[in-house]
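Hey, quick one: can you model this chain's 3D structure?
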Amino acid sequence: MGRLIVIEGLDGAGKRTLTGGLTAELTARGAKVTTAAFPRYTDDVHAELVAEALRGEHGDLGSSVHGMAVLYALDRRGAAERLRADLDGHDVVLLDRYVASNAAYGAARLRERADGDFVAWVRELEVDRFGLPRPDLQILLRVSTELAAGRAAHRERTEADRQRDRFESDAPLQQRCAEVYAELAAANWWSPWLVVDGAAEADFAALADRVLG
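Sure thing. Here's the predicted structure for all 213 residues.
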């Protein structure tokens, strides 16, 4: 059974860069690695509905915190069998976002903390009811909201398929989300967490040591 490693953080924190660098380091050490990212906008109808709602389609769906959270959760539920197969066939499965993203963003939208009702509801839904695979480690890429926003804006200008959605463009929401993420990490919510400075050059060798246990 492989190790499930999740990379979390704000839009623009550097999750994709960290995933690529860590994959290269682990592969160089002989580990069999596969990656995935949530939401699966091109592979799952629930994620497609999320993307459409974020563009203002489907009436007031985008305004419903719980309604959007259920769609995000159903996307992951649909991927659970594949995740388990990947864990059976690989040493490491790296995920760009997972359950904690749902918890952090929803709580931030409702102006709740990590110990509030929404985070508990997400855990009951995705962990207890859907039985999603538990991560061996969740890595939080911690950056300032200003740096994250600057990176996301640059990416939006230079990559045609990387447009920010309404949540990613909401600076106060991003700040609240960063605070909830920090609380989740401090509490080792659901599994162990590692906080990494996303503004500094990543030490992929040290991260690979931690990932491999």
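One thing worth noting: The mean pLDDT is 92.
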